[in-house]
Design goal:
It contains 2 helices and 15 strands. The protein is mostly beta strands.
């Protein structure tokens, strides 16, 4: 106010003048608004054993071209952001060879995954630096189910726990399938699968 009074007094002395008043806005916060953070689709749930006890497990929301995963806490709970891509299946697996595979249904955000004894596939690849790896299970009630989809690195074997029964392991990039192997796995089995790919 004092500056405005002084400026108007100077104008009275010199006849006429123009002055500008600049009002500075408060800096805007760059933090995400809480309402916006809630809008990202997520799936939440718990992993339990057959007796209903919480289980520590790796849980993945799997879709064609990738997955997003997280490890449960001691209470077996998990939260996964879906990030706008088409996840189809939830896959939970434990270090001791148990797993659960369930379709991811739209709007189902209170999921209970019950792990049961599975089988383990160890996938190794050579001949290329990396490739996409799809692990596909059959006989789950509605045809084939994509259990995992990830990048396999040459010389770095990947372990995937799957339901017992018919399994296909496919190495691909985009629309090009490099190799595929079919397996029939019994409960508790561990199967090593090696691929030698050209260039």
């Amino acid at each position: 106010m004092k500056a405005l009074f002084a400026a108007s007094s100077l104008c009275a002395l010199f006849g006429s003048c123009t002055f500008h008043v600049h009002v500075h806005e408060a800096p805007r916060s760059h933090e995400t608004h809480p309402a916006r953070a809630v809008q990202e689709p997520v799936v939440r749930g718990v992993v339990v054993d057959e007796a209903g006890r919480p289980v520590r497990a790796l849980v993945a929301a799997v879709g064609h071209g990738g997955s997003v995963s997280n490890t449960t806490g001691e209470a077996g709970s998990f939260t996964l952001p879906l990030r706008g891509w088409p996840a189809r299946v939830l896959h939970a697996s434990t270090d001791d060879g148990r797993c659960a595979v369930e379709p991811l249904r739209a709007g189902n955000f209170d999921v209970r995954l019950t792990v049961r004894p599975g089988a383990t596939v160890v996938i190794d690849m050579s001949g290329r630096p990396h490739a996409r790896c799809a692990v596909i299970a059959g006989d789950l009630g509605s045809g084939d189910v994509l259990v995992e989809d990830f990048t396999v690195i040459a010389g770095d074997p990947a372990k995937v726990v799957v339901p017992p029964g018919g399994i296909r392991v496919r190495l691909y990039d985009g629309d090009v399938v490099h190799a595929e192997r079919s397996l029939d796995l019994r409960e508790g089995a561990t199967q090593n699968v090696s691929f030698a790919l050209g260039g």
